[in-house]
Write a structure and sequence with these properties.
The complex is a heterodimer of chains A (446) and B (313). Chain A is of the alpha/beta class and 446 residues long. Helix content of chain A is 40%, strand content 17%. Chain A contains 17 helices and 17 strands. Chain B has helices at 63-68, 75-83, 107-120, 133-146, 162-172, 185-197, 218-234, 249-252, 256-259, 271-289, 299-312; strands at 16-21, 24-29, 48-54, 90-94, 125-128, 153-157, 176-180, 205-208, 245-247, 293-296. Chain B contains eleven helices and ten strands. With 313 residues, chain B is an alpha/beta fold. An eight-stranded parallel β-sheet of chain B has the order 8-7-6-5-4-3-10-9. Chain B has a two-stranded antiparallel ribbon with strand order 1-2. Chain B is globular and about 65 Å long. The chains are: A alpha/beta (446), B alpha/beta (313). The interface between A and B is large, with 63 and 56 residues.
Chain lengths: 446, 313
């Protein structure tokens, strides 16, 4: 995609004025090519050259922002197809769908259900971020706008599923300020819809009967000057939708086809046709392969617990380990007289260990201190999970709060026992099992 | 100007491995695309779904699963019921009772169960060991012996016991060898190399490249499978072209989200639904990443995942 240093150099004024901080224009050009400097840092670059360069160096997939304030989300901007190649940057967001075809009671029930799923997992808030408001057949502007206003009371960012430009305009007059997505442009209405979306300053969702139609429609909307788009790749069935989702993403990232360089919406509620288990399967499938927004019939804890865990894993930065906050975590009703157990702050270790500890049913306090987000042996080897660091945390944070003086350490760092006994007078240091799966048996027999 | 559709053609292809004997067999692998990318090239064999049963009978199973097996009193009954499950392609017998840290059942006792199950059903069979490397080294060769002629998948040899299990299953008794490694492409590759060096036919190896429950370090599973498929197809690496089988159930049913009672976590709602969705969502992610077969327990999960596979075929 990007231009090389020589190509950029040709566009510079070649004055070697050093105002950009580089000794020569050539040196500056090389740095721009590497991404170390921005082309705008040259004060003498012509507007023409800047436009030419930013086009050429623009990322293949656009970053699109929806919503405002706490409800603002960034979609797209991905650079790779597989997470091991670099990292996925914008996680999938989930919407629950409402429709004018539902009766009031059903709408109210759903609106009451949505806020119930709201919890934290490893420092991340998990909840249904979006609400999709579908304009069913035969609904007029008054009916639709009423439903949109009702949905807006939840305070979640909205996606307006409507193909009639007049109805869209009416709804946006009410909720446009909260920057919802207007999902409804297609081959027959795109010009009017694009005008409505542009006037309201909102992102426009585009769909097509197949990839060719979608492609042509996007190209036509871009020609109108609107590049604030999301592609609704939901097809006639599961197979077509999966093919669309993969090919759109692949065309933009692998083949540099910028017309498809936008985030996607996938409506699994449509595909699952009321089968909640199928919806769960498809939500997982499209979280893996390439849904930016997934629209669901419902998001109860049954769906939320697995899918938010999956998302947290898939969208984690491979270079940054997931860590839990240091602290004292009482389990099974542990109090100040309960056994103290410690392990590292690596999220995976924490989850496996805390899960087993909970299964044991033994009341205890799980103490986590900063071990660099590494596993037990790695952090021990790196000196981050040492008798010194454990003893310091116990003396400073645990002793003032916990009366019990028994500390269980992971079997893999049994070697720390002697040191810990010396550093923590009055404490009984117990060496636990090497593997978390043996904890239940170990604790029950203690 | 229409969309310039560029197909991704690979020179590499995964091996086709057949499990089972007679007219009841399943084929897994044999594909030259990423999972479900049938728009790139036709899918030779769709992914398969296995139903896991345990030598421990119905003990410790979630209520929804127990309900399906209601009335079953013997392992033979359970096996028949599992084979009849809607969407099931094969049955996987887990010999967890052999774990020395658990029930520590004797090899003879477990072999009797293996025989009972094998006699009860004629569908393709997978036999999973107890995960303890020493016990499996003793147990699984005997399993391979008593099931001669059934062409079962023995799950699994590991780095520590591949000589005993790989040689018995792959050489002495001509079964399919399961090679289990811990979510790392190099470990998977290495185990395949040493197993084939024993003389085991590469076409009779199926990999378990490690699994996890969604939310529990699952990123390692995704990247390991992505990279293995990439190497198998893109680099034609024949030591990574074995199909992948993933035991999902044993990872998902034990986690808190799937097992915490409604009394403990009232806001979480139905424990049955939580268990099913955890199994379904983990399995769907496994299949999207590269599993050619998954092993599940709940009838609703087996049905849904098999429907999803058919919908994508």
């Amino acid at each position: 995609m990007g231009l090389n240093g020589i190509q950029i150099f040709k566009l510079t004024p070649k004055k070697n004025c050093k105002e950009c901080g580089c000794p020569t224009c050539m040196a500056f050009s090389m740095k721009v090519a590497q991404g170390a400097l921005k082309i705008e840092q040259c004060p003498h670059m012509s507007d023409d050259a800047i436009a030419q360069l930013s086009e050429a160096t623009a990322p293949p997939m656009k970053t699109i922002k929806i919503g405002t304030g706490d409800g603002e989300f960034t979609l797209g901007g991905e650079t790779v197809l597989f997470r091991h190649e670099k990292t996925f940057v914008s996680k999938t967001r989930y919407a629950v769908t409402l429709c004018t075809c539902m009766d009031d009671a059903a709408v109210d029930a759903k609106l009451a259900e949505i806020p119930k799923v709201d919890y934290e997992r490893i420092g991340e808030r998990m909840y249904t971020e979006l609400v999709y408001v579908n304009c069913g057949e035969g609904a007029d502007a008054a009916v639709y706008t009423a439903l949109v206003k009702k949905a807006a009371t939840l305070g979640r960012t909205l996606i307006l599923g409507v193909t009639d430009p007049e109805i869209a305009k009416a709804a946006l007059a009410e909720v446009g300020a909260s920057k919802p997505v207007l999902n409804g442009a297609n081959a027959s209405n795109y010009a009017e819809m694009s005008a409505v979306a542009t006037a309201a300053g909102v992102v426009l969702g585009v769909s097509g009967a197949d990839l060719n139609e979608l492609y042509d429609t996007v190209a036509a909307i871009e020609k109108l000057g609107n590049k604030n788009l999301i592609l609704d790749v939901t097809g006639a069935d599961v197979k077509a939708t999966f093919a669309n989702a993969v090919q759109v993403r692949r065309a933009s990232l692998k083949d540099q086809d910028r017309t498809f360089g936008y985030p996607s919406i996938i409506n699994v509620a449509k595909l699952a046709k009321g089968d909640a288990h199928m919806q769960a399967a498809l939500t997982s499938l499209f979280t893996m392969k390439y849904g930016s927004i997934i629209v669901m019939e419902q998001m109860t804890y049954a769906e939320a617990l697995p899918v938010y865990g999956l998302r947290q894993n898939v969208f984690t930065d491979p270079q940054k380990p997931m860590k839990v906050e240091p602290g004292i975590y009482p389990l099974n009703g542990g109090d100040e007289n309960s056994l103290v157990v410690t392990t590292v702050d690596f999220a995976l270790t924490y989850f496996v260990v805390s899960g087993e500890l909970e299964r044991s049913g033994v009341p205890l306090n799980l103490v986590i201190n900063d071990a660099g987000g590494l596993s037990v042996l790695t952090s021990w080897a790196a000196g981050k999970f040492s008798s010194g660091s454990i003893a310091k945390f116990i003396t400073e944070n645990v002793e003032p709060k916990i009366k019990c003086r028994k500390l269980l350490i992971p079997g893999k760092v049994a070697v720390l026992k002697g040191d810990l006994e010396a550093k923590l007078p009055g404490w009984e240091i117990i060496v636990g099992p090497r593997e978390a799966v043996q904890l239940v048996k170990f604790l029950k027999e203690m | 100007m229409p969309f310039n559709q560029k197909l991704q053609k690979f020179t590499g292809k995964t091996n086709t491995v057949e499990i089972g004997s007679g007219d009841k067999t399943v084929k897994i692998g044999g594909n030259s695309t990423y999972p479900f990318y049938s728009f790139d090239a036709p899918t030779e064999n769709t992914a398969k779904v296995g139903v896991e049963i345990s030598d421990m009978g119905l003990e410790g199973l979630a209520d929804g699963i127990k309900a399906y097996y209601e009335g079953c009193t013997t392992m033979a009954d359970i096996a028949k019921k599992a084979a009849a499950m809607e969407g099931a392609d094969f049955v996987a017998l887990l010999l967890e009772g052999g774990d020395p840290n658990g029930e520590d059942k004797s090899v003879d006792e477990l072999i009797a169960i293996v025989k009972e199950v094998a006699d009860a059903v004629d569908c393709p069979l997978v036999v999973e060991g107890c995960k303890n490397v020493e016990k499996d080294a003793e147990l699984l060769p005997k399993v391979a012996d008593v099931l001669q002629g059934r062409n079962v998948l023995i799950l699994a040899e590991k780095e520590e016991n591949y000589k005993a299990i790989g040689a018995a299953a792959g050489l002495a008794y001509n079964q399919v060898v399961g090679a289990e490694s811990a979510v790392d492409i190099n470990l998977a590759n290495q185990l395949n190399v040493v197993t084939t060096q024993l003389g085991v036919n590469a076409q009779k190896i199926v990999m378990n490249v490690g699994s996890a429950c969604a939310g529990y370090g699952y990123e390692y599973v995704v990247s390991t499978m992505d990279r293995i498929k990439g190497a198998a197809l893109g680099q034609n690496d024949n030591m990574l072209q074995m199909p992948i089988i993933t035991p999902v159930a044993s990872e998902t049913w034990g986690v808190k989200e799937a097992s915490a009672s409604e009394a403990d976590m009232p806001e979480w709602g139905s424990v049955d639904e939580r268990g099913i969705d955890m199994e379904i969502m983990t399995a769907a992610a496994d299949l999207a990443a590269g599993s050619d077969a998954v092993i599940l327990r709940h009838p609703a999960s087996v049905k849904t995942i098999s429907e999803m596979i058919k919908a994508l075929a």
